[in-house]
Amino acid sequence: MTDTLQHARVLSPRRNTSEASSVAELVSEQLRHFGIDENSDYGQALSRTASHLYDAQSDVMSLWDITNKTLGTLGKEDRMAYFNAKKFLSFQMAKVLDTLQNPFRKTYQSLSSGNGAQGHYPLFDNVTALFSATPVVVRTATYIYACTEWVDDAFQGKEATHQIYSRLLNPTNISLANAIVDLEAGPYAGDYLAWNFNSGMAAIDGVLSNVLTHGDVLIVSRNVYGGVYQLLHDYFARENRLNIQIAWFDGYTKEEFSRFLADTRQQNQGRLDKGASLHVYLESPCNPHGYVLDVPGITVEAHAVGALVMLDSTLATPVLHQPLQHPDKMARPDYVMHSYTKDICGSGATTAGVVIGETYRMFQPKGSSMNGVEWSQTLFWDVYYIKGAFLDSEKAFDVLNGMKTLEQRLMSKVINTLIFTEFLNAHPQIRVNSHAVAKHENASLREQLHNNGWPCPLFTVDMAPAQLSKAVFTSFFDSLEPAFSHQVSIGQTNTIILCPALTSHSELSTEEQKKAGIELTTMRIAMGTDNVKQLMAQFILAARHFIEPAAPGFCAAFLAPAEIDDIYRRVCMQVCEQYHGGVASMTEVLQE
Q: Which positions make up the signal peptide (predicted)?
């Protein structure tokens, strides 16, 4: 069978059972399938239309082939011309479909009894949505299918554009998946695929459920979100569940991980000899301190022993770190997760999450196998298809809208973080646990790994040197509203403060909290885009009212207002110069 006929056959209602050896035979077969007399006026018109469509399908596939072969050799000017020519072609195809709706509706109406009981048939009304400048919110549970063989292929995962049920696929959701892959993977986006979940925790549970099998060993970075600790400790590690052996990694560097990996393998050799696998789960930057781990270095070490690496990159967002764009594939995590709920959406109005991985690990049609992974082992068929944690279209649309301002919001948060941590760090009785502080032990990794060396806008602070009583501290903390918001989530436009021991990490025992560097009076601060001077003023005024009477002289150690103004101006100029100075020159933009 020629490539032309093979491409055309995809459009046939008998695509899997057709015996046609030419486009003309495909057309005749199609008319017979629907009981149309091809010698009638209607049959002849339908025959000519179908012939054009079969030919167009072959020509479009030729366009795709030519694009793949030539795109890398074209200058930017030619690529722009290619793009616009294809865009207009899409409009032409949509126009043909839109024109078809009039005879289609006329025929449909003729089937009705005339009392409207048959209802409205929206198929072609949806065509004009192709011209929407933003992704369309598709609010439907199910979809109309074309014919028996097409829907059979859809259930086999061989017809990606033929959606069946919104728990599995939804156009708005797929638009978001494509967008996050473009942001995270950049030039390697063609190798990756994403599945969106109804929350960040659902995404994490999904990937863990896909990767882990009974009795496996899992290395986990110490400072993870409390909900992840609870999921691992209270579910996956339970003997009557998956009996996963968890090894908590306290370090941050490649060298520390290499030693820990060797020790963990030795300690669990009995399990590994019996067929258990060893994998790695990281969170970087991590909650609540915002520490950065050497993700590329750790990943290389893990891959050297055949371990898969799962990375929660929520706090980095694709603005601070893009681990899937590392030039060395061995240094890229196998899976990257985000809680969209946080900075990527940014509004605090939507809960959502995502898992990104290489396409062959995420989805393959039934019966396929690639790189040692069977179709049934992919995230889609193994977990996503059956667990029902799919993200609905309204939430997907909210996240897509939030993405539009992500870079600008993160830059504002970076400015606020640098200013506020410098202000606090200047006070001798306040301990700032943030790699934004130049002399912090984690600052060098932040400089090495984060774009522009920018800090994570999440960090912790405590006042242990002041030896405040619990009553004084809680009165001070409770008075930080309204400048600081007393909320439990992070990543919104407002600055949020909480005590992790009582909220986000309350699932940890007191001993585990101490190992994670969390004291009862530790404050976790998630910087927003708000006026950082108002935040500092609220902090100073609350300290004057509640701390100063119990610790005389405490407030005298704050920086003077003029010094704070100098810090503000200097940091704003520094970050803006880093951001705008990193923009490609006009010559590069014209030639890229």
A: none
As a CATH number, domain 172-397 is 3.40.640.10
CA distance 207 to 353: 11
Q: Token digits for 578?
A: 């880093």
Q: Are 535 and 495 in contact (CB under 8 A)?
A: yes
Buried b (16+ CB within 10 A) or exposed e, 457-467: bbbbbbbeebe
Of 358, 331, 211, 336, residue with least CA distance to 277: 211
Identify the band that residue 119 occupies on the pLDDT scale cut at 50, 70 and 90.
Answer: confident
Task: Give every CB contact of residue 146 below 8 A, 6+ residues apart in sequence.
Answer: 13, 162
* 194 three-state secondary structure: strand
Helix (H) or strand (E) holding 363: none
Closest among 334, 206, 216, 354 to 282, alpha carbons compared: 334
Average pLDDT value over all residues in the chain = 93
Mean pLDDT of 180-206: 97
Residue carrying the six token digits 């701390």:
547
DSSP 241-296: TT--EEEEE---SHHHHHHHHHHHHHHTHHHHHTT--EEEEEESS-TTT-PPP-HH
CA dist 355 and 311 (Å) reads 10
CATH number of 404-587: 3.90.1150.10
Delimit the domains of the chain by residue range.
1-67, 75-110, 172-397, 404-587
> What pLDDT is attached to residue 388?
86
CB 405 within 8 A of CB 345: no
State yes or no: pLDDT of 405 exceeds 60. Answer: yes
Asked whether residue 271 carries a pLDDT value surpassing 80, the answer given is yes
Longest CA span, the chain: 101
pLDDT of residue 118: 67
Q: Does the structure show a pLDDT above 80 at 517? A: no
DSSP conformation class of 498: E
pLDDT score recorded for residue 117: 60
Pairing of strands 458-462, 431-433: antiparallel
Range 37-57 average pLDDT: 95
